[in-house]
């Protein structure tokens, strides 16, 4: 018989809901590859098939489930640690948010999530990061205008991604930069666009780009400015 876990199955299963995640400041990561990305071991690991079935958020569980402490940082720390930041405003799809975190990790950037974005610790978001949640610096539940003001005072430039009328991605400046991206369809509200120092448009034959695709292209363009 497996040893009695320090965090019970019932308590861990509750972490599939945001209310309990916030109360515990714990979240679940599922799968050997994803868990293996963490530089520190989980505070609890469920590996027995029956345990995994009870804790997993998936209809068909994919492997062990680990319990981890929250990883997000205050905005001041994000601004101190990152040279490039993508600010997602109102991006509600967990897959998009997770994919942007993965791209930010790949291209050496931090992530700022506005209020109204998909929850960082939603199991779908965590899966979409493919483990980058353990590597990228992320701040969440931010007021976009306030964060842009704080970034400006910290000597960051800022650029708003708009569907048309902006400069090309190759115009992105080197140095400290916040790239603002809104949800596909809704885009960025005008007050956020106006608060940014410039505007950028990703050329596309499609009517619009998925938020994660647009953010990833712009993150790469900004990253390319600092490559040797």
What is the rounded Rg?
A: 19 Å
What is the strand tally? 9
Number of domains: 2
SSE ordering: HHEHEHEHEHEHEHEEHEH
Work out the helicity level.
25-40%
The CATH topology of the largest domain is given as Alpha/beta knot
Task: Provide structural commentary.
Strands 6-5-4-8-7-9 form a six-stranded parallel β-sheet, sandwiched between helices. It has a three-stranded antiparallel β-sheet with strand order 1-3-2. The termini are far apart. It contains ten helices and nine strands. The chain has two domains: 9-69, 60s Ribosomal Protein L30, Chain: A (2-Layer Sandwich), CATH 3.30.1330.30; 75-224, Alpha/beta knot, CATH 3.40.1280. The chain has helices at 9-13, 18-24, 32-36, 49-55, 75-81, 94-106, 123-129, 144-153, 190-195, 211-224, and strands at residues 26-30, 44-46, 65-69, 84-89, 110-114, 138-142, 157-161, 177-182, 198-200. Strand 4 (84-89), helix 6 (94-106) and strand 5 form a beta-alpha-beta unit. The longest helix is centred in the last third of the chain and has 14 residues, at 211-224. The protein has 228 residues and is of the alpha/beta class.
């Amino acid at each position: 018989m497996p040893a009695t876990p320090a965090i019970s199955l019932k308590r861990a299963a509750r972490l599939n809901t945001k209310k309990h995640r916030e109360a515990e400041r714990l979240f679940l990561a599922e799968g050997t590859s994803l868990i293996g990305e963490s530089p520190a071991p989980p505070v609890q690991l469920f590996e027995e098939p029956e345990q995994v079935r009870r804790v997993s958020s998936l209809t068909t569980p994919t492997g062990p489930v680990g319990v981890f402490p929250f990883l997000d940082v205050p905005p001041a720390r994000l601004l101190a640690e990152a040279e490039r930041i993508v600010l997602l405003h109102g991006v509600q799809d967990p897959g998009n948010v997770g994919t942007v975190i993965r791209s930010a990790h790949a291209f050496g950037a931090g992530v700022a999530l506005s209020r109204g974005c998909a929850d960082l610790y939603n199991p779908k978001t965590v899966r979409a990061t493919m483990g980058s949640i353990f590597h990228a610096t992320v701040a969440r539940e931010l007021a976009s205008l306030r964060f842009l003001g704080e970034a400006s005072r910290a000597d960051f430039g800022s650029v708003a991604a708009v569907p048309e009328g902006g400069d090309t991605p190759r115009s992105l400046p080197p140095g400290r930069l916040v790239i603002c991206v809104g949800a596909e369809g809704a885009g960025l509200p005008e007050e956020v666009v106006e608060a940014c120092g410039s505007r950028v448009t990703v050329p596309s034959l499609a009517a619009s780009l998925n938020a994660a695709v647009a953010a990833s292209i712009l993150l790469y363009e900004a990253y390319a400015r600092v490559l040797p």
